[in-house]
Amino acid sequence: MKVEQIYTGCLAHAAYYLESKGEAAIFDPLREVGPYIERARKDKAEVKYVFETHFHADFVSGHLDLKAKTGAEIVFGPTAKPGYEATVAKDGEVFKVGDYKVKVIHTPGHTMESTTYLLIDEKGKEHGIITGDTLFIGDVGRPDLAQHVISDLTEEKLAALLFDSLRNKIMPLSDDLIIYPNHGAGSACGKMMSKETTDTLGHQKKVNYALRADMTKEEFIKELLTGLTAPPGYFPQNVLMNIKGYESLDTVMERGERPMTPEAFEAAANETDALMLDTRDAEDFAREHVPNSINIALDGSFAMWVGEMIPDVRQQILLITYPNKEEEAITRLSRVGYDHTIGFLDGGMEAWKLSGKEFETISRLTSNELEEEYKTSEPLIIDVRKKSEFDSEHVIGAINVPLNEINSQLAQFPKDKPFILHCGSGYRSMIAASILKQRGWNNFRDVSDGFNGILKTEIKKSEYICPTTLL
């Protein structure tokens, strides 16, 4: 059966392409639809359907642009109520793609409209299931997202529905079916997904905690809800965009790809509420950056950290990038609904400096330099990794303020004494450093190689939760 996974690592996202006899279907596409259209063109195929497994929270889907550009029919599962023309399928309904069949299996739990698509080949053999966020490799979808859009859909209600969907709709299927999930490790849509992105249903029944045959519904709900962290703030906003509709990516790109001289860029920053977002690497940002800009580097989990750190997807953005990286930055912002880039600094930081404008720096030190300092003093160290990372192992005496909580925990960062920031590699700590710098902190340094470097030093580390807090 001709089914291809199209995986985008920075979002831990998988879309799927199905083709038979000149007809194609796309499942859960990303915002930029050109690659899917080009893929179908290579097969001389017409995109007949765009199947959505649910209204996504972690990205804005490309279904509307695909429909506009190809005429494809958008298909959702039962109970979906899109604000635009689409087919809402019935449970058990079958759609034909060439000689293949796609059967709708309603599997509520992650969301109410969540649907699994059973793929059946030209011989009538069941080949695999495109599960969306219902079933991952090693995990299942978190059931606490829908309540942020519809308050009476509690996580307990949805977890109970997910238990029934898995037991009654998924687990009775053949063990040799291939599972094609919407996400892999790194996505915030689950809590313990595998780095593997496909597996057989039979193997998952043996190793996936949520598919244990002897598990009661009460045990399932308890295990599923234990350890869930708060979802990123942009998730509900992306859900609403996917339900109600959104601007074409072409419009978003046209608005954002507006080159600005340093003078025009500075004027726009002063005259609007736009956020200056620098997407260069942490080291380059530390060396020199436009005053009051924040750093979230493209070379990392860019879109997810934008979603974590910028509360409103409607926020206007002014970009500072490496030359010729503007299109990539605008595209990746749009994937998570940040559609309001209004221009970029033409020529980047080099143009800014040549114009004679002031720039700022952030002081960094290596883990080896920190080790020498640690031997002779007791520097205040603030670790911005996730709590689970900190609990696993951390520098003795360090304070933990996870990066995604920094905006609500600014009081944890002193202004009357120096401190040192670190994360795992230096990526997240520079995001934190840029936010603190923007808000008036100057009494800190950042560890350039992070905890990965600290592990190689003789600095004392602890494997238990450190109770130290700032007074």
Structural features, described:
It is a single chain. The chain is built from 16 helices and 24 strands. By secondary structure, it is of the alpha/beta class. It has a 6-stranded mixed beta sheet with strand order 1-2-3-4-5-6, covered by helices on one side. Helix 3 packs across helix 5 (217-225) and helix 7 (249-256) crosses helix 11. The longest helix has 16 residues, at 155-170. The protein is globular, with a radius of gyration of 24 Å. One of its GO terms (molecular function) is hydrolase activity. It holds the Pfam family Rhodanese. This is MBL fold metallo-hydrolase. InterPro entries: Metallo-B-lactamas, Mito_Persulfide_Diox, POD-like_MBL-fold, Rhodanese-like_dom, Rhodanese-like_dom_sf, RibonucZ/Hydroxyglut_hydro.
How does the SSE layout of this entry go?
Elements: E1 3-8, E2 13-20, E3 23-27, H1 34-42, E4 46-51, H2 63-70, E5 73-76, E6 87-88, E7 94-97, E8 100-106, E9 115-120, E10 126-132, H3 155-170, E11 178-181, E12 199-200, H4 201-207, H5 217-225, H6 235-244, H7 249-256, E13 259-260, H8 262-271, E14 275-278, H9 282-287, E15 294-295, H10 302-309, E16 317-320, H11 326-335, E17 341-345, H12 348-354, E18 364-365, H13 367-376, E19 381-383, H14 387-392, E20 394-395, E21 399-400, E22 419-422, H15 427-438, E23 444-447, H16 450-454, E24 461-462
Parallel strand pairs: 3-4, 4-5, 5-6, 10-11, 13-17, 14-15, 14-16, 16-17, 18-23, 19-21, 19-22, 22-23
Antiparallel strand pairs: 1-2, 2-3, 7-8, 8-9, 9-10, 11-12, 20-24
